[in-house]
Amino acid sequence: MSFGRLIFASLRYHWRVNTAVALGVAVAVAVLTGALLMGDSMRGSLRDLALDRLGRIDQVLVANRFFREDLADELAANDGFVNEFDQAVPVILLNGNLTNPANPDRPVRVNRVNLIGCDSRFWKLGPVEVDQVNATAGQLDTLPRGRQIILNGPLAKQLGLTVGDVVLVRLARPGTLPAETPLGRRDSIERIRLRVGAIIEPTGLGGFGLSLSQQSPRNAYIAIDVLQKQLGRPGQINTILVSTGRFDATSPQVDERLQAMLHPRLEDYGLHATQSSRGYLTLSTDRVIFSRPVESSLVRVLEVVRPNQPIQRALTYLANTIACGGREIPYSTITAVDWANTSPLGPLLDSDGKPVGPLGDNQIVLNSWAADDLGAKLGDTIRVTYFEPESLHGKLRESTAKFRLVAIVPLAGLAADRDFLPSVPGVTDQLTMDQWDPPFPFDPGRIRPKDEDYWENHRGTPKAFVSLAAGRKLWASRFGQTTTIRVADLTEPVAPTLAERLPAREMGFVCRPIRQQSLAASAGTTSFNLLFLGFSFFIIVSAVLLVVLLFRLGVHLRARQIGLLLAVGWTPRRIAQGLAAEGAVVAAGGSIFGTAIGIGYAALMLLGLQTWWLAAIVTPFLQLHCTRTGLIIGPAVGFVMSLAVIILAVWRIGRRSPQALLTGQSVERPATGFSRRHRARPLVFVLVLLLAATGLAVLLTRLGDEFQAGAFFGAGALVLIGLVMAVAWQWTAGARRPAIRLGRGSLLRLALLGAARHPLRSTLSVGLVATACFLIVSVSAFRIDPSGQPRLDSANGRFMLVAQSDLPIHDDLDTPEGRHALGISDEDNRQLDGCTILSFRVRPGDDASCLNLYGPRQPRLLGVPKTMIARGGFAWASAVDPKYPWRALVVSHHESNGAGITSDRSVPMVLERDTATYSLHLHGGLGATYDVEDDLNRPVPLRVVGQLRGSPFQGDLLISEEELLRHFPDTSGYRFFLIECPVEKTATVRAVLELALGDYGFAAEPMANYLAGFLAVPNTYLSTFQSLGGLGLLLGTFGLAVVQTRNVIERRRELALLRAVGLRRRQIAWLVMAENALLLIAGLACGVVAALVAVLPHLLSGDASIPWASLAGTLAVVLVVGLAAGLVAVRASVAAPLLETLREE
Amino acid sequence: MSRLRVENVAKDFPTRAEPLVVLRGVSFVLDSGENMAIVGPSGSGKTTLLNLIGTLERPSSGRVVLGDVDPSTLDEPRLAEFRNRQIGFVFQDHSLLPQCSVLENALVPCLAGGTVRPDQLQRAQWLLERVGLADRADHRPAELSGGERQRAALARALIQRPTLLLADEPTGNLDRTSGQRVGELLVELQRHESMMLIVVTHSQRLADMMSRCHELDEGRLRKQTS
Predict the structure, then answer these.
(1) Is residue A23 within 8 Å of residue A594, measured between CB atoms?
(2) Please, which residues have CB within 8 angstroms of residue A694's CB and are 6 or more apart in sequence?
(3) Ramachandran class of A253: left when φ > 0, alpha when ψ lies in -120 to 50, beta otherwise
(4) Which of A11, A204, A676, A1129 is close enough to A127 for a disulfide, judged by CB 3.0 to 4.6 Å?
């Protein structure tokens, strides 16, 4: 007989209890493995989904403007491209809304649709199969063509469309000029009526999109030429999709190499170079005014290609009126420019042929035509009336500036350069002035014949000149400060070199490694491994405890054998080694079995997420991914953990005398009560804990909400520990109290004494049940009910509706005039009386809310208007200025820290606490910074100055409107709205606005519904925790039953004696069951009381939405199952043969 | 006046080979106030006979009648009540509840009725006084000597004023002096309570204290002395 054979024989002989231990290990391993596989499955599914939707697309070249479609072909023809990439496919990516016009009275409209202008080349990029297409008008690879449109399944379903139906597409026709300048046009809304040519599944390219979300996007595919024509952009696109032909093309810097292969022409940048016969080159932009970054890039490159040559910047602006005395000239251009002293960019010569000196801020020069027309003399005051360079809510404001006439120049030479005025659609392309079709208020009646003559002969040649500084003071804006750049070009044409040298990225052409970014985003915002490990925590703890209890039960059953081994000379260490070795074999078997169950557990959890807990992931998309990591780490950790507790369990075995063990006594010493000397210590300890908890609770009522919740949780935990300790103390102390007394209740007291027999064992059981119960009850209190009353400081901020539009709305929805400008009738306007509509600017970005499982690359930015900052509202988790939290958005950094002006450029930001914590992982709280990128991919640091709690801004970053425009100047109009109105008018207000603003894709949603959408996620997680916690608690009750069974086995002789002296089986059963119930009820009671302390602030504030019914149900089930499990012990107690048991001595 | 009638009692236990016959037609009668000792070598069936009389086991044939009752005809609740009221046990090992005091242990049989009456408490205190443990009533079994434990077990056995007291090797684990004291107490209390007493023992000294002594040999009972 060797040591190994003894272990093997022992394993075989005690197979029942070993199987039970192995099952316990299997449960722990299964839950661990399952949780890890859950995380792997989440990541794997997100990854699969992202890659599926990208097809073979690896890089995306996006521009902040339209450019030549040919650029895609030129890129593809590049030698480097051919070596490394496969295809460059031109597409147009826009947003719009679609309407099913079948029922004109109740048209079905779907907003936020991705419109993809493409041709057959697009379909070669992805895995869309012909059998996925329900085509009647041709094969997929020839679609879309003509006036056909392809819809993906979800979109077609929402619209109720089938192949052959007609659909109305609304989209914005993007303007070239910034919409909020006097010359800029608002995006006009184009309507196209198209026929559905095919409906494709939302998989593969049917789910294509640059923004990642697990939800199926609503995609519509339109023939690229049809779209170009509709947009008035023939031969132009805004995106190039690049494929590498292989899926693992995520090598570093590939986007940089692609960027280097891109060679846009000046026209792709919207730049125009005009060679002047006077020896200089004039650069202008079809945007009319250069954006500041483009201007900087241009100047920088010009300084390189034309070193030592002067560069002249000019700002030409339209004056509504130039007046002197009682005479005026309508609609004239004025150029702000600093003339050079040398040719060809100066000097400007007056009528005497003398150079005009540098102009002061209040000085003006008129050309001879204007001076004659006005009858102006040197020294006269010239009044210039103009529209302010930026409009707000669609309103233009007119201002007047006064100058002193210092020179009159002949309309010749440099003063006669008509290229100072860039091309302005609707103005410079008109033959006569009265044909002008400008976006600003224009009165053709003011045009005189002489003005028409001037236009005919000199077009937009400026009639006046001021200094560049004076001009910029009046007419520079967030959109720029320069309209033309001139450089001497005496030797050779500079334009080709310039285009080549301009940095495409800085000019707005950005290559995005979309595949790489998608893979990175697939890691998700939430670690589902940890999440489900947390959810399954109590199952794991219960299973491990069960392993300990079962193993010790097995050991106890062998007390006599252990005694024998000790008697024949084995050392306690050797016995422990043998038992540990046996435990290791059992744990290994359990781990292998548990791995298989773990896969099933993960599959079950996935099924739960796809069905019961669907709200947590929004849409069912998960697939089980069994990774090597999950399948190795889970069992390994489970095995080590189980073995560790087994070793701990056996370590002290063998400390009792062989005689005691041989007579079947427990391997543990029973409680004997406290000695007099130590009797007070536990009580003092418990009292200190309870006092600490009370003190903490009282103290924290003075702190902010964010501390309160956590601290009350801490106080609850202290109460829990205190109560469990009190129970343990009571038991230990009670070990010496009389059980059998006069009157009734002696049997119950005997049961209590039985439960107290092994305080450590019982306290562990009670502690486990209590902790699980505490967490389940207290965590349930964090369930949030969105259906609160409208209140300024609540989650709804007293707003009744949240609205968004696909297209920017420029007019002020908060004023009757603004609404009137948007086409809202007087009658409808009256319906909106008493409403407050706050409009927010939107910088589009990724959805960083809990509804999107992908990690955000660049979250959406909202520009908070001053009206909102002044009004205030919403619930705050933390704020720099708790009294006026919104004001921190407009307090500059040097004001806020009181340390003077610093180099810190960070922008104050407010965001939802959950977004900060879970999505962006900003754990620094107030003061933490997060970088976003501006239009040219430059980082803009945002600094947290406030965190909202439960507001509708989940997933958004809020900065002041001013800061948004400073960093994203091209953002125009408003696309996010909060509407405050009387409760009873909510439905009417919604209907009026949605109907009137349908073209803009305006959709409003009741605030409660909007918030409920977000709250469904955490609430579902809480349900998941509650369910799995409940499962763990149930497992804990089985542990309790094991403890009880062990107690019964240890005391079977006592119980037999009770039977021998005449107690009935029923009484014995009652005694044992009462012991079990006492432990169970003690655990549940401790847990519930401590939990109620923890959730007190929630209860008092009325925010808590504790699901009392389901909680009571869970606890009742636990109680019933716990008692049922206790029947095992009861059975063991009454089924033991009386005589044999008595004879065991 | 009660009488114990053991009539032709036999007991065998099934084994793999053939039934193991332990008792072969044992018969005797014992009246109130009588006591008897049963002696015999190990494995002779002494304890089995005691258990049959004590209703802890049923005979294979024959019957045991106490008073007018044949306990083998009773169902479990009635049998438990019968045992509680009519029979007191003293085991070789004291079999005391370690978590209870001496007084509580004496009262344990009273729990079968669900309540402890004042007269029962009084009797327990009286019994403890009689067995010399009045000053140890609040002590736990672990704090008593072997003899004291057995005396406590005796008090417990007598609490319900049983008709029949059965003692299985009551002095088996005790030293001579303690054994002597326990034996004397057994006889003294049996006489005081006018009950029947059957003692199974290897101790000739204890057997000599009984008015009758029977030897059990190969399953048959033979009268040794009278």
Answers:
(1) no
(2) A715
(3) left
(4) A204
With CA atoms as reference, report the closest residue to A171 among A806, A822, A1002. Answer: A806
How buried is residue A672: exposed, middle or buried, by Cβ count under 10 Å (0-12/13-18/19+)?
middle
**Mode of pairing for the β-strands spanning A929-933 and A464-466:** unpaired
List residues bridging with A500 in a β-sheet. Answer: none
Whether A753 sits inside 8 A of B118 (CB atoms) is: no
Contact A1061 B104 (CB under 8 A): no
pLDDT of residue A545: 75
**E strand or H helix at A312:** strand A311-324
Compute the nearest-CA separation of A686 from chain B (Å).
Answer: 25
Q: Name the pairing type of β-strands B212-217 and B35-39.
A: parallel
Q: What is the spatial distance between Cα A582 and Cα A554, in angstroms, rounded to a whole number?
A: 11
Residue type, A1128: V
CA distances from A428 to A270, A304, A389, A391, A420 (A): 16, 32, 19, 22, 12
- Exposed (0-12), middle (13-18) or buried (19+): which is A712, by Cβ within 10 Å? buried
The distance of A1079 to chain B (nearest Cα, Å) reads: 18
Tokens at A187, concatenated? 């995006």
List, in order, residues 6 or more apart from A996 with CB less than 8 Å away.
Answer: A819, A822, A823, A824, A825, A828, A1002
Partner-chain contact A741 B98, CB within 8 Å: no
Report yes or no: A307 and A213 within 8 Å, Cβ to Cβ: no
Q: Does B107 touch chain A (CB under 8 A)?
A: yes
A1110's CB contacts (< 8 A; 6+ apart) are A780, A1026
Cβ contacts of A1033 within 8 Å, gap of 6 or more? A538, A542, A769, A772, A773, A776, A1114, A1118
Distance CA A221, CA A144 (A): 7
CA dihedral A1104, A1109, A1114, A1120 (to 10 degrees): 140
d(C-alpha A203, C-alpha A3), whole Å: 61
In this prediction, residue A606 carries a pLDDT of: 86
Residue of B150, B136, B155, B143 whose CA lies nearest to B178: B150
Torsion from C-alpha of A104, A107, A111, A115, nearest 10 degrees = -60
pLDDT tens-place string over residues A681-722? 666 666 776 777 666 666 655 555 545 556 666 777 778 888
Candidates A629, A549, A555, A552; CA nearest to A595 is A629
Contact yes or no for A444/A430 (Cβ under 8 A): no
pTM here is: 0.74
Per-residue DSSP letters for A216-232? PP-EEEEEHHHHHHHHT
* Residue among A670, A1060, A1066 whose CB faces B56 most closely: A1060
Whether A1063 and B114 lie within 8 Å, measured CB to CB: no
In this structure, the strands spanning A280-285 and A327-337 are: unpaired
Q: Which two tokens stand for residue A1125?
A: 């499990």
Q: How far apart are CA A529 and CA A633, in angstroms?
A: 12
B14 touches chain A (CB under 8 A): no
According to DSSP, residue A737 is labeled: S
Highest mean pLDDT among A707-716, B15-24, B210-219: B210-219
Given a contact cutoff of 8 angstroms between Cβ atoms, the answer to whether A542 and A1032 are in contact is yes
State the Cα–Cα distance between residues A844 and A155, nearest whole angstrom: 21
Cβ of residue B83 closer than 8 Å to a chain A Cβ: yes
Reading the block at residue A31, the tokens are 């839950």
CB of B70 within 8 Å of a chain A CB? The answer is no
Amino acid at site B135: D
Residues of chain A below pLDDT 50: 130-132, 135, 137, 247, 674, 706, 893-903, 1145
Contact A116, A91 (CB under 8 A): yes
